[in-house]
Hints:
The longest helix has 18 residues, at about 75-90. It is built from 5 helices and no strands. By secondary structure, the chain is mainly alpha-helical. It is globular. The model has no long low-confidence stretch (mean pLDDT about 85).
Amino acid sequence: MLLRELHRVERPRERLERSGAAALSDQELVALLLGSGTRGRGVLELSSAVLAACPGGIDRASLTELTAIEGGAPARAAAIVAALELGRRAAE
């Protein structure tokens, strides 16, 4: 499903603004980090692929694993790894 097919208030960014990050699914949070999909693959589908490629949990995903996903460009993979590291540091 493409974001434009969702009602505006059900899109991840709008839900984040309205309800906070805790209200979003992992898929929606990853979609926000990715920013957009690829040709023929919406951002929600791409975020599902990212999560599926990390059976041990996205918090254990490496830059190499994330880059290997179709549509997992190095810049997108780096953004996810950086966000996860910020989360780890904040938790300490």
